[in-house]
Design a protein that fits this description.
By secondary structure, the protein is mainly alpha-helical. Helix content is about 80%, strand content about 0%. It has 7 helices and no strands. Helix 4 (about 70-115) packs antiparallel against helix 5 and helix 5 (about 120-140) runs antiparallel to helix 7.
Length: about 170
């Protein structure tokens, strides 16, 4: 407790000291911080009772690291970031595909109940057209997928949706 109070006093004095005494004060404060860190890690950890989960957001870390990289390092960081983004796009696509399959199965069931006398070929053609647009519509409504697209890509996706709907 007494040591902490002394260090607090030294931190308050530090901006007002110059020359050789300033270096001594800074060295003393940095040494005290190092000693505090060493003491903190000397305490035994109760790993069996530890419920905290260590999590590192590598994508955020690499994004923050990118501006300080040289060109060769930045290229590698971009490659890794593109991998993370591709994985997000694939996950969004998979989720949209699953929603599409569920919607199409439900639609097939409803159409089969609504058109029991229609030939199977006509029902298949209607299911394909409606299912294709439903899948695209689900993908377009998926927020995770939308956050990964540029405005130009979103516009292209909307145009494809319009073309499918008119067909």
């Amino acid at each position: 407790m007494e040591e902490s109070h002394f260090l607090d006093m030294m931190r308050a004095v530090q901006p007002h000291v110059s020359g050789r005494p300033k270096r001594s004060v800074e060295l003393m404060l940095q040494s005290a911080d190092l000693l505090h860190s060493v003491r903190q890690y000397q305490e035994p950890e109760l790993s069996a009772c530890d419920t905290s989960q260590d999590f590192i957001d590598f994508e955020a870390m690499l994004t923050d690291l990118q501006p300080v990289c040289n060109p060769a390092e930045a290229e590698l960081v971009n490659l890794i970031l593109n991998f993370f983004r591709s994985r997000k796009i694939y996950t969004a696509y998979k989720a949209a595909s699953r929603q599409t399959a569920e919607a199409q199965a439900q639609q097939n069931h409803l159409q089969a109940a609504a058109m029991p006398d229609a030939p199977a070929e006509n029902r298949q053609e209607a299911n394909f057209q409606n299912g294709s647009y439903a899948g695209l519509r689900n993908l377009m409504e998926n927020q995770a997928f939308q956050s990964l697209l540029s405005p130009a890509q979103k516009e292209n996706l909307n145009q494809i949706g319009t073309l499918i709907q008119t067909l």
